[in-house]
Amino acid sequence: MDNLTEAAPHTRSSTPSRSRSVWRTVWPAALGVLVAAATVYRVDDGRDVAPVVAASGLVYLAAAATGRPWMAWAAFGVTLPLITIDKFTEFSATPWILALALVLLIVGLATRANRPSDGMLLQTTAMLLLGATAVVAILLDARIGGLVVAAALLAHAAWDLHHLRARRVVDRSLALFCAVLDILVACFVAIVSVTA
After folding, report:
1. pTM surpassing 0.90?
2. Residue 113: other Cβ atoms inside 10 A
């Protein structure tokens, strides 16, 4: 009887821990699915998703420039309304996202002496590549531009998964959320672009 009494608390205490672990995986993935659905809503030209490519670089740069992983979520919070306005009006979010990246780069360089840089050069390079890809994709025809957007999002999904595994630069929740978002949107954009 004593063995059963001792075993019961151990079993009970491991269940909440397991539930928390599952929750940490489920909510970012579920949010990624939800944001992906909102992103592709009414999209018939893959180039319309180009601002998401630029934003995907910005969130990582925000974390690297400030040295605070949670700043990636804050940057996402800033880019979301910009991309939403872009989606439903003539407003172009990409130049604003690139301007924000420049501000973050300046902040990162100015404060670098006070703390070690966690991949600042690497994240800046990624931001430059993703920003340039977003701009080029917009200038191409619908089919090729859309496929460029899809390829960039898939490449960024690999970037997300690398950071998820490495547990560096951004919070794991952001990396998982972003990977799900990027993969789903990339698949949708590729299909729309090929069938256009």
Report:
1. no
2. 7
